[in-house]
């Protein structure tokens, strides 16, 4: 049975392991990364983003200037964590970066980068091929909207659920938790309106 929790702040507090080695794929301006540090207290957090002109659903959507500014802001905001070794920045195409980690490295990874079917499947496949998730580790992510959810979401991306479901069927994972679709409000407005998912190995 799939567990349902209120939002991704609850996910960080009650579902994803604390003091973990983890990653956020698709950092943008670092809003959710701040929540990860606050609520999950990771041992090490890898922040992965291309920071170079790719919009939310796979289309070109930002200028190089905007991307550079976002990367610079994240670098400043996480300066103390980077200097202490608690956080690491990785700029590059997410699937290629994910393939570079050693086997059984991550306790969990949160994927929120390319929201197209093809893009998300590439990221999930990279995690599977590299075997970088521990045997008892988790893959989580954002914008898992079912057909019923999509009309309620401010930014629906139908390819996400398709990619996640196909990955689970082909690679031996299963959906174990998801968040509700609520209004854009509270501590994490982006997360409250779009369902997150959590996968575990079958």
From TrEMBL:
Ranges where the record places region Disordered: 182-202
Protein name: Methyltransferase domain-containing protein
Organism: marine sediment metagenome
